[in-house]
Structure formats: C-alpha cells, structure tokens
Amino acid sequence: MRIFDGKKEAQRILVQLKSRIKKEKLSPSLAVLLVGRNPESLIYIRNKKIAAKKVGIKVIISKFRKNIGEKKVIAKIKEFNNNSSIDGIIVQLPLPEKFDTSKIINAIDFKKDVDGFCQKNRELLKKSKPYFFPVLPWAIFTVLKHISGLEDKKIIALVNSDIFGKTIKVFFERKGIKIEYLLKNKNKFSKLKSADIIISVKGLPRFIKADMIKKNAALIDAGIRIVNGKIVGDVDKEGMQEKASFLTPVPGGLGPLTVALLLTNVYLASKRKNNSKIG
Fold first, then answer.
1. pLDDT tens string for the chain (279 positions)?
2. Start-end ranges of CATH 3.40.50.720 in the chain?
3. CATH 3.40.50.10860, the chain: domain bounds
4. Do the Cβ atoms of 175 and 143 come closer than 8 Å?
5. 133 close to 116: Cβ distance less than 8 angstroms
C-alpha cells in the first residue's frame, strides 16, 4: 500500500509561497472565526497558524462561545469584510448545530472567501473560473493526480453536507472526472465495494474497514477526530495493508496539503488587492 506524504507536498508549496510573498513584498492576512472549542477545530487552527508564520501570513483569530448568537458572528464577518487590511476570511467548521452554516458562510465577501465555499464562489465554479478554488476539493484532486488512469476510475465520496458534496462534484466534473457522493444517513455503504477510489470526509473514527472496500481501492481520508488523545481518521488502517493500494494517512496526509492550499488562496487575495491599488 502506497502512503501519500502530505507533509512533503505541503512543504513544497509553502517554500514557493514564502518566496513569492517576500519577492512581491506582500503582507497577507487571514481572519479565522472559531465558535466553541471543538478539539479538531483547535488542531486545524493551530496548524494554520504555524504554517502561516513560516510563509509570512498574519493570522487573526476571533473566538466566540458556542452559545453566542448567530447575528454577532455575522456582524464580525461583516466587520472583516469591510476591513481592507484583511485579505481572507474563514469560518472554522463544524459550527455548533444551532447555527445555519450556509447563512454564516454566505456572509463572507466572495473576494475574501479563501475556503471557496460561499454561494457566489460555488456559482462561479459552475459557470466559469471561481474567484477562489475550494480548498478541500482542490487538495483532494492534487492527491488524486498521483493515481494513474484517474478518468476511468469509479469515485465515491462520503460527505456530511450537501453543500460540500455538490461542490466537490462540480469541481471534479470541471476536470473531466465523474464522482458520486453519498450523504449521511441517506445511502447504504454497500456501494463502496464497487468504488476504485473512496473519499471520506465524515469524521467517524476508523469506520471504513477492510471488508467494506474492493481489492486495491485507493483511500482518501479527510476525516479527523480525537480519540483517547490521538488524532485518527475515517479509515481503520488495520487490515488495509493487504487490501488498499493507496492511502492518505491521518495525521500527515490531506491536512497539511489543505492548509498549504488555503494559504495559497490568502496569498492570491493579497496579490489581487495589491495589484488593484497599483492599477
């Protein structure tokens, strides 16, 4: 089984990013909104801060209690939208269940939506070139380019939200690749037996077992949970050595690459702003 080295791929991107930011004399900044203290979210934010510091991107974090009102979160987003010193904005997901995630994400100015998931950017993804490519589908596609004969593979994605499912489907179709996504509690996982490539973004610790997949399937694990103090993914690695042909490990697989591509979007936002000032 081939193991994808996400840290190595991310490092390559970050080195280039640092060079470009320095050469172009940019001062990119990213605003992160965190609601509650989800342990996985805290890890993501920590990793973003570490990588951002390496390349010269400033990170501003706004923390809210999980019982905060939706209006106050949106008000903070609008404040960042109107702040010319802020180049990119992300809301760290998942949000507490009481929140309307779509409403919150869509409050972000699409020119600062560096995650690429607001409605405007998703519409642009369908019609033309989006202002930003959505980061997680971009990271997944970057990994899949390491698999030969991709166009002929049957790909199934396990997702927790229809928004992400539709976004990844459109993203891949733009690349000439068909993908099917299965939503939580709406499909049986028996379909996985027919998949050449399985993408899982569910955050269900080790739920994908060896007997659920076909021989030589490739596994893209984008789930993350903290179990007994350890970071684990959706794939149960035990037994996969003789069954799967390819795996993105957790940690060290898709996560570092996703962070590097997010920071790439922050750099692009800063560059566009700088060019508009010059023009």
1. 999 999 999 999 999 999 999 999 999 999 999 999 999 999 999 999 999 999 999 999 999 999 999 999 999 999 999 999 999 999 999 899 899 999 999 999 999 999 999 999 989 998 878 899 999 999 999 999 888 888 889 999 999 888 888 889 999 988 889 999 998 655 567 889 999 999 999 989 999 999 999 999 999 999 999 999 899 999 998 889 899 999 999 999 999 999 999 999 999 999 998 887 654
2. 135-252
3. 25-111
4. no
5. yes
Domain 25-111 has CATH 3.40.50.1970: no
pTM, two decimals, is: 0.95
- In one-letter notation, the amino acid at residue 225 is R
Provide the CA 257 distance to its chain's centre, in angstroms: 9
Assigned fold of 135-252:
Rossmann fold (3.40.50)
